């Protein structure tokens, strides 16, 4: 915000959120049309993951509540020693439900492959590298879908986030021919494409 002189912008594809501070409409610069300015806002009711614990008969690492349960926000772009990336955030209650559904799918895939449980926090670069947390000890890793975590980045989520630098960039409007089948913009689309590619190989 200090560098831009304004709040960050995001394309929510019509999804409402308590984060929204202002919208851009007709008459504005074409590149800004339909984008919104946003600010992270504390949730009135914290998000919980008890249903996943119960459904999969496991206990998720406490840091998942710290990352996803307290605030609504748009995805956060960052620079790091490992390259550019994007941290997943929860935009609204529907987004939180979507997160839980995809997290269950990811954890079930890990069980099927007999691999250690991880949960995703973002993506790195433009490829198929996921940023994940090892559910056993809370360490942060790079993971390729279908494989076990490959490169350890930090011992804890706090330690990982502390070495990231926010990346100032214009909002990116995601437009794909298959958007209807993806049913969610941005970082989720990239996750789903990764998983579809994985399923096609198995």
From TrEMBL:
It comes from the Bacteria. The keyword Membrane applies. Pfam families: Syd (PF07348). The keyword Ribonucleoprotein does not apply. InterPro entries: Syd, Syd_sf. Keywords: Cell inner membrane, Cell membrane, Membrane. This is Protein Syd. It comes from Shewanella colwelliana (Alteromonas colwelliana).
């Amino acid at each position: 915000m200090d560098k831009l002189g304004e709040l960050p912008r995001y394309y929510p594809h019509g999804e409402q959120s308590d984060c929204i501070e202002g919208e851009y409409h007709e008459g504005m610069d074409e590149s800004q049309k339909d984008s919104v300015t946003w600010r992270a806002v504390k949730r009135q009711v914290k998000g919980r993951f008890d249903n996943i614990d119960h459904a999969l008969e496991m206990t998720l690492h406490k840091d998942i509540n710290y990352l996803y349960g307290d605030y609504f926000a748009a995805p956060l772009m960052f620079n790091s020693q490992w390259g550019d990336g994007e941290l997943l955030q929860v935009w609204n209650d529907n987004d939180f439900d979507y997160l839980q559904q995809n997290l269950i799918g990811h954890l079930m895939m890990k069980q099927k492959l007999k691999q250690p449980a991880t949960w995703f926090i973002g993506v790195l670069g433009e490829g198929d590298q996921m940023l994940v947390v090892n559910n056993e000890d809370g360490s942060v890793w790079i993971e390729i879908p279908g494989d076990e975590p490959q490169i350890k980045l930090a011992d804890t989520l706090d330690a990982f986030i502390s070495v990231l630098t926010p990346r100032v960039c214009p909002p990116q409007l995601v437009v794909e021919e298959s958007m209807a089948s993806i049913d969610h913009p941005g970082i989720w689309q990239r996750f789903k494409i990764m998983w579809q590619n994985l399923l096609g190989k198995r």
